[in-house]
Amino acid sequence: MMKSLLSTLLLLCTLVSVNAVPVVPLSTTDIKAKSAQGLRLLTLAEGVAPVWKTESEVLDLIRGGKKFFDVTETYEVELKIASARTSGDVSIQQTYAAPSHQTAVKAILATMTSANMQTYLTTLTAFNNRYYKSATGASASTWIANTAKDIATKYGRTDVEVSLFAHSFVQSSIIVRIPGTNTANPRVLLGAHMDSINLSNPTSGRAPGADDDGTGTVNLLEAYRALLQGNFRPTSTVEFQFYAAEEAGLLGSQAIATKYKNDGVAVRGHYQLDMTGYFKPGTKEVMALAPDYIDSSLNEFTKLLITAYASIPWGTDLACGYACSDHASFNKVGYPTTYPFEAVTGNDNQLIHSASDTTSVSGFSWSHSLEFAKVAAAFAYELGI
Ligand SMILES: *[C@@H]1O[C@H](CO)[C@@H](O)[C@H](O)[C@H]1NC(C)=O
Ligand SMILES: [Zn+2]
């Protein structure tokens, strides 16, 4: 994840041009032919038609901090979803009751430790990088799946399902599912991206990705572990999702969100974690909530969770902008999402996407990161039980 004031300005400019461009749908044959030539189809702003870019143009956009959706593989299913929506499938705004399971939730949160997260992160950052096209990026994905399976085994949970969600590249997304006793209920989703990137040399350069997004990844692993230790048996299915290829245009999260929407999966809420381990020394420590491309009712619920279960307050972040992290993939198809970020933008970690994204950065704080993991577990419990 990387935001800039420029992207905020671009967002403001593009908001006024929504629906200004009449979009002529591309044909399946055209998409197949162009992607076979190695071109990628990107959307760069709200309401603007997608454009074809070469792989090297895509890398230049990433290096320039420009955020986009790579819709090469999801464009057609998105069109299907959009046409279903105009023929009457309007998503209804959901409501969220105040947190009401304090005793049970606090007992689970008391078992969560940064030491567990540090152990997970040591392995994750030891992969040379977790780039979505590299062998080590694929190995990191396998490691996350095996770790989730080991945790289920440790707590005797044969009901938990760990599955690889395969893509057209070597890194798979991972879905860790705690099935609810009522499978008709909308699902509760929590997400983080597993990939990392070295901007100067994506394929083989060093990219430990400790904060971006090793922290979100290990927050979810520890929340999941603590819930199983606490014998969490939800009514609604709860899923921990680890996305491939966020840095390359939100590929993993878009593939999952569009598949779920197209399959008619109902979602209660999605909680995104992307960078939770840093706040600029000397600044106020908060959980900074993205104000855009989120669901305002779910966001109010997250504020209540933070007040009830975290030892730091919530804050309001600056606009994250178009396609800024995986929550945007869920927002795009009409699922409610919320995104607490490590600091108000400007006070966040500036050393990401490089060999320097490590835990030894001054301002990196495990106790800060643990708060995001605790609120993740509380989110899963309060909405899932
Ligand atoms: C990318 O990786 C190379 C080699 O591992 C390293 O020397 C370089 O500093 C990295 N680039 C960035 C932007 O960190
Ligand atoms: Zn990120």
From TrEMBL:
One of its GO terms (molecular function) is metalloexopeptidase activity. It is an enzyme of class 3 (hydrolase). The keyword Signal applies. GO terms for biological process: proteolysis. It comes from the Eukaryota. Residues 174-379 form the Peptidase M28 domain. InterPro entries: M28_fam, Peptidase_M28. Its EC number is 3.4.-.-. Pfam families: Peptidase_M28 (PF04389). Residues 1-20 form the signal peptide. Keywords: Aminopeptidase, Hydrolase, Metal-binding, Protease, Signal, Zinc. The keyword Zinc applies. Its cofactor is Zn(2+). Belongs to the peptidase M28 family. M28E subfamily. This is Peptide hydrolase.
